[in-house]
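S.,

Sequence below, as promised.
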Amino acid sequence: MSSTSAVIPYSAPATTAAATPARRSLTRIAFNLTLFALALASLTPFFWLFCATFKNNDDFFQYTFLPWAHPGRWTLVNYRFLFSRYPFAAWLLNSLFLACAQTVIVVTLSSLGGFTLAKYRFRFKKPLMLIMFATMLIPYQVLLPSLQLMMYRIGWINSYAAVIVPGAISVFGIFLFMQSMKLVPDDLLHAARVDGCSELRLWWEVAASWPTGTASSGRRSSFNNPRSTRSRSAWPT
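The prediction came back faster than expected:
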């Protein structure tokens, strides 16, 4: 005669179950506070630079930030010197124009290139991608003399074209958008073609509008990219 014993499932104590969400909340709060402290620490050099604009030459190295105990020593002479001697407003508008123009061009061309590599099959596609990737390994300083000579022969010295055109193609941006375009369903593209969409309209209304954060990431990286020609201090044009 065999006897079977009922298995009673184990249930955690109520105090332990209640303590788990509270522990997670404390961990999340501690993590966010740590990130906030690190963010403040990363902004310290910018705050020091901002404070340095209100100091004269005698107080520049005497005080770390500002002479808080002596507000009368704060000065605006640096700003007066800047705006009276140099066309700072024109410089600022020029930088904003170049940054916005190049961002629009880079994001547009990168999106087109990424869509082509992600959704089309053509000969020598893989060798082309390898060559594109290899160009990312070439230091900019190696290309600087040849780029300067090219701009001189074309006649673009001291022009906007010499600043915008060499940095209009971003291989990193193309690969970034390519990974995003791969997420667009092929069936959706086929359905759009059946409805009469052209290939350019497929890119603009279907692939480019696909809800991902790639476009914002591409705009941000292009606007702040230190490798772009508008921000290269060595660029002669």
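The chain is about 65% helix and 0% strand.

Coffee later?
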